[in-house]
Design goal:
The chain has about 280 residues and is α/β, with parallel strands linked by helices. It has two domains: about 130 residues, Rossmann fold, CATH 3.40.50; about 140 residues, LpxI C-terminal catalytic domain (Cytidine Deaminase, domain 2). A six-stranded mixed beta sheet has the order 6-13-11-9-7-8, sandwiched between helices. It has a five-stranded parallel beta sheet with strand order 3-2-1-4-5, sandwiched between helices. The radius of gyration is 19 Å and the shape is elongated.
């Protein structure tokens, strides 16, 4: 757990976790400020009578955002939420962000490279970057079967195959998720994100049933940033695709609204399992 006496800066992308973090801070009475990313953070929540320090920025205005955090005397920073592919306008950088990209050069070629460089930049300003699991530890996926349904032997083989593929994908710093059916990798996650991966794989499903979404933390990925995440939306998309279940990296992935997510999977007769990749070698 982080020290709640240290002022927290929240860099908020899309999804429900930024809102959960804000509500947790309000409940604990922790001082915090928010940088909401335009085109990603939930405007209904952050604009609807927000009575806490808030500033909206484009992705390209990271330098402006760090200056705001410094002015607000932020000590800890959490980066959380989904980021959609930005438009050209979103990417137009401020002066500090231009200098940042010039310094990191080729490191910007992969998601992890740029995020690690971003962490270093933030901590160079005297702030400490924390993982969401350090603030809301109950978000971490527990190991084992979370639903009423258990994976079949065929499902377990698909999980094993998915883990092999996801680890290889992660080593190349490409994505975190794969979809496997009957031992065949139907698709791997790229820049489009998990929802689009699942939608795309619906076109390639084989006859005879089966199919699993596997999401793992990349082998070299910093636990503080961009952990693999599932929630009710993931279950809905997987159900629409005809998948049997979801396998998520236990202790290294997040599950949003766990009760709702599990209940939805139970409703559809699907399974959710927190996996340790070493158990499936």
């Amino acid at each position: 757990m982080t020290n709640t006496h240290r002022k927290l800066g929240i860099i908020a992308g899309g999804g429900s976790i930024p809102e959960m973090l804000v509500r947790q801070c309000l409940t604990e009475g922790r001082d915090f400020v928010v940088l909401a990313i335009e085109g990603n953070a939930d405007k209904n929540f952050f604009n609807n009578g927000a009575d806490f320090p808030l500033r909206w920025i484009r992705i390209g205005q990271a330098g402006t955002g760090f200056k705001y955090f410094t002015e607000q005397q932020v000590r800890d920073v959490v980066m959380i939420g989904t980021i959609r592919r930005p438009s050209f306008f979103d990417l137009v950088p401020d002066l500090r962000t231009t200098a940042f990209f010039a310094r990191i050069g080729a490191k910007a070629l992969g998601d992890d490279g740029i995020l690690r460089a971003l962490v270093k930049e933030i901590e160079g300003d005297g702030m400490s970057v924390k993982g969401i699991h350090e603030v809301i530890p109950e978000l971490l996926v527990k190991e084992g079967i979370l639903t009423k349904r258990k994976p079949s032997e065929r499902d377990k083989e698909d999980i094993r195959r998915g883990i092999e593929a996801a680890l290889a994908l992660g080593r190349l710093d490409i994505g975190q998720a794969v979809v496997v059916q009957q031992g065949l990798v139907l698709g791997v996650e790229g820049i489009e994100g998990t929802d689009e991966l699942i939608r795309r794989c619906k076109e390639y499903r084989r006859k005879g049933g089966g199919g699993v979404l596997v999401k793992l933390r990349k082998p070299e990925q910093d636990m503080r940033i961009d952990l693999p995440t599932v929630g009710p939306r993931s279950v809905e998309r997987a159900h629409e695709c005809g998948l049997e279940g979801l396998a998520v990296h236990a202790g290294n992935g997040l599950i949003v609204d766990e009760k709702e997510t599990v209940a939805l999977a139970d409703k559809y007769g699907m399974f959710i399992i927190g996996v340790n990749p070493n158990d499936f070698k």
